[in-house]
Every structure is written in C-alpha cells, then in structure tokens.
Amino acid sequence: MPLNLPPLASLRIFEAAARLGSYREAAAELNLTPSAISHGIETLQNWVGAPLFRREGRRLVLTETAEDFLPYVSEGLSLIAVGARRVSPLEDDRRVSISAPPTFASQWLVPRLSRFQARHPQVKLLIDTSHRQVVFPLEDVDLAIRMGEGRWAGTDSTLLFRESLVPVASPAHRREIMRDGEVKWTEASIIHLRTASRDWEEWLARQSLVIEPRGQLHVDMISLAIDAAAAGLGIALAREPLCRGDIDAGRVETLGFAPLPIKTGYWAAVPSGREPRRDVKAFLSWVVAEAAADGQPWQHETVPKPKSA
C-alpha cells in the first residue's frame, strides 16, 4: 500500500516558515518568492485539512495543529538529509559540522581556528551559532559545544572548561560607582542575562549581599551583556574565561571581587554509539588540547550518555 504523503516541497516550506516565524525569511532561505511560500503553505493546509498559521499583529503563530505536526516534519526531513549524506558517493568526508553558542564561537573558538587549519588544511569547518540545541543524530551536526553540567541523552561529552562569574563595568562607570574600594549599588544598574536568570541571585547569595540597584537591564546573549557593560549601562556578571579578552582589552574592568566558580562549563559533545569520523576526532582532540593549554582551572572529565538514554 503506497504511503499517503503531502508534497515534499510544501513540507520544506512549512518547516522553514515555522522555524523562522516568517514567510519572508523562509522565502529568502529557500530562494523562493513570498507568493511561492504562501502557495506552499496553502497547499499543505488543504492536504492537512486545517490552518497551520495565524497572525497576531505582526507575529506569525503556529496553530495547535501545526505545533503537533511540526516535530514529525522536522524529524522526517532531518532523517532524509542525514541518510542522503551518508549514502551519497559525493559526500564530503573532510567536512566537520560544529554547533556552538555564539559567544563561545566568537570569543573563544574563532580566534584559535587558524591553529587547527594549519594542522588540517583539507578539513572544511561549518559552524552553526544558532541558540537551539541540536539533536543527535537527526541533524547534520558532527560535534556540538554545549554549556551546562555535561549530561545529555545520546551524547558522550568532554569538559573543555568550567566557568566563573565576575562582575564587570566600563572604566568610566566603575569610577562612578566605586567609593573607597566598595561598590555603591544604589548608584548602579544591573545587567541580567535572561538565559542564565539565576546568575545574579547565586552571586549575591555567595557574597552575602542584599542590594537595591538603581535600574535593571535584561539581555539574551552573554556578549550583549558585556557590550552593554562596556557602553556604561551597568554592571554585568561576566563569565570567565570567555570574557577574558574584553577585560584584557580594557573594554570592561572587574570590581574587586574574586571570580566565583560555578557548576556549569563548556563541553564538547558527540553522538554516542558510533565512532566519530577521523576529522571529527581530530577536531575534538584539538579543541580539548586548546582548552588545556589555555591555563584555566579545569579538570579533564568525560561524561558518557545517561543510563536512561
């Protein structure tokens, strides 16, 4: 009995529009016209028999039907892409696809990549810095750099380095809020990182401080928090060692507090259950060695997949 499948083109359009939240951005990614995107969505809606999107002001929102349908579409397209890559005689075996958080990629990884390229000039590196956590093996990623405590289902993870929190401000703002070597918190604004919302709470508790800051600013990227601090907008909790370059360059200055070690760190994760390709192993060995040579207070740890995975 033949499979009753919707048009593949309409599934690609739906997945892109749902992931990007925009018909216009989906059109740009797929190199189609906006009218072709609209037609593809209409075709799929007719096939499904229910609306897939609705407008809320300027926002494109998934319907309940679309939210149920999207995981199946995403997984199916990912499996097709991975399968095609593995069986194709044209597969580029010298390509290594890496997923990494944007701040890690820009502040730590990219400045060191020339050393890897000098050793392995034939290896092509693809770096994806989207915020999403990739799913092995359904996405076309060989190795992921992840921030956390090191246990993710379906992965083997090796610690690169742990993090420490240290408050920083611009040199000018530091002069404004420091009196006799102490921070006047009522004259300072606090910059919060939304993706690490408990950082300030943990840091203040460990310092036995209760503060009433003048104002607060919330951002969604570590690099943006540092940029805001460098612009004089307040005090950010920087995460060493990623912030070390900004401190050394004088963009921000510490406020006299010792770095506070925390549980989270950056890990190199690969899919468990199969041997990585030689170039993936070469990159993994290189990035672990780079972290060791960095002189950070890290301890080599390798964490296998959880038993329940």
Which tags fit this structure?
Arc Repressor Mutant, subunit A, 24% strand, disordered C terminus, D-Maltodextrin-Binding Protein, domain 2, 11 helices, alpha/beta, 39% helix, 309 residues
Weakly predicted, low-confidence segments: 297-301, 303-309
Any guess at the CATH architecture of the largest domain?
Answer: 3-Layer(aba) Sandwich
CATH class call of the largest domain: Alpha Beta
Arithmetic mean pLDDT: 85
**What's the CATH H-level homologous superfamily of the largest domain?**
Periplasmic binding protein-like II
Strand segment count: 14
Biggest β-sheet, characterized?
A: 10 strands, mixed
Q: What is the domain total for the residues?
A: 3
CATH fold type of the largest domain: D-Maltodextrin-Binding Protein, domain 2
